[in-house]
């Protein structure tokens, strides 16, 4: 088939023969060009193949042959209602031929003159060249109709169907017969493969690696780059335990395959509310007071460091709800029952005598989360167990996610699990054989999390509180700084801080160290001046009275400046 313009080919295409495969020959985009089609970047180069899947009439350009004006008609065009009654509503009639009609036009004219044609019927009679028509609903002149189609086509290595206008200025040729063996590879996301269990196992090549912030600190995640080949073995469900190390600020995900041994650590509680939150109906909690707590009158006696309490349950309803505890007495003292208000403070530590070593599954069966543990025996299947070096570990919640079990083609013995909900990227499946993983293939049993991903997981847990909205800025009143501070008010006098102590009195200015000559005193300027406060007269040497007085004032001024500087250091304004 000879090359045709894309518009000519689509207008003459019989929809019943779809799909058709086209090859791009030449046109405006010769040598290839990146441009936008229906909001997606697309590149058409000479030699590219298109698999046309569907053709949809988008609009019709109606051209007046006399005025050359154009009008866009929707496919549902029905015309106006104010035309002569003898003409059917919105129907097209063939125009009188200016020359003898060809065989091609003669069926068209016979059908059109009998009852007229709708817009869609006129488009069905369109055969590469527009036919002259009349439509009183549009105007009195002869019209030419130019359809514009939206072509839905598949391209190699494109995930989505490309929507191309038929008016694209490019030449194509039909190569359907000779390209029957061509496979249009479609990239897939891992989340799509997770729903296509029948395609597994399969080999895959990464087209685009993961985007966005990292989630794991593991080395294998950094290898998920463009061009890396993977083996996807199966679909599975993974059980993880979210854990954190309070002493180091590190966070982890433990798989159910972790083989380390744990020992439970005593839990710490700040206030009665935390005791209530951890209380279970079938379990009794024994704690020891670690901080003195003042009582509330005669009803609530004070708690003293070392008191041993057995938490038994709640009593009362509404605001009168109390926590019933039994305080054990000493050797010669009897115990007593305490009803503690829920808003009482205090500090408690769990009293526990348990030296048993637990597997992870045993621990989760017997201990509700969260709980404090310590790894006393590292996982023997790991070359380096990061959990074994931590003094304590807080197990926070259990997570259940669908995963893909995979490995690297170059290192089939190195296995991993990928959750597409957390780590999604595009791949291209291939038909190459997949080697089944060995039963002893080690997998990452402990994943260290980045801090950002840890808090993202916390926010996704059921019952987790939403972060509070940011506070609006305070309005600055007239004569105040932002935040309500007066320009002349010291920072220490702001609301919520301790008031500044009163300023100390200024010390007396230093007096000149001029010796007093005997027998000569300056008379007092005030008759009531206290004795001993008058100053001695200075010797009247020529040219020295002014210099001596100026020196005294400079010395006093320096001392004042030092005092003010000291005060500003203590009380910054």
Automatic annotation (TrEMBL):
Residues 460-558 are annotated as: Disordered. Residues 544-554 have a biased composition (Basic and acidic residues). Pfam families: CABIT. InterPro entries: CABIT_dom, THEMIS. GO terms for cellular component: cytoplasm; nucleus. Residues 18-80, 200-410 form the CABIT domain. GO terms for biological process: T cell receptor signaling pathway. Belongs to the themis family. This is THMS2 protein. It comes from Pedionomus torquatus (Plains-wanderer).
